[in-house]
Amino acid sequence: MADQPLSRPAAGRAPAAGRAAALVARCDDALRASASVRLLAELTDGSVDAETFARYLVAEHAFVRTAARLAGYCLWQQPEWSLAVRHADAVADLVGPQEAYFAASLADRPVDGAAATAVLDHASVLRTTVVAALADGGYPAVIASLAAAETLYLRWCTEAAALAVERPAAVQRWIDLHTTPGFRAQVAFLHELLDDLPAPVTDAELDGWFRDMLVAEDAFHASPYVEVAR
Hints:
By secondary structure, the chain is mainly α. 74% of the residues lie in helices and 0% in strands. It is built from 9 helices and no strands. Helix 3 crosses helix 6 and helix 5 runs antiparallel to helix 7. The longest helix has 49 residues.
């Protein structure tokens, strides 16, 4: 197989410097709001109950597998090999340490079929949103969407980790997974890619994909509280 992606990013004028930082600044209100939703507040202060956390893990596990596939798509679409390798590193993290975390944590926290189905149905908005972004804007849209999700988690978990709060061990491990040097490097990599996007990708498009993902994250984070019909 030739070392070529299915499609290359569109050619255009030189990329605008600092686009990622400017994007995050423009969307700071949405990031702050998303970091303050009920679930993340309860994970931060350690008050989340065991059933809610277990349901959250079911939803998060499903999306982490989606994220791994998206990172694989980005690997294939990225024509520069050194950058493709960085996408491969993201896949390795998602199917390695994170998959191991879910295997261990979910084994101790079984969720019955009806509850799992209800949670996954509600949480599917996150997958639907990023797949729609991919259809709309391809590689740049996926990068912007993943940057929104990962920037949110880096911000939330960094702030949570700085607090001297007693939390369930699995909650603390989940927060710690999103403050490691490797995770910080992955977020920085997504921001570098945003900086390097060609000028024809407009700020308005980036804002739309980024904010849409945060709206979807809010709905996703509400999924563990969905009422289950008995």
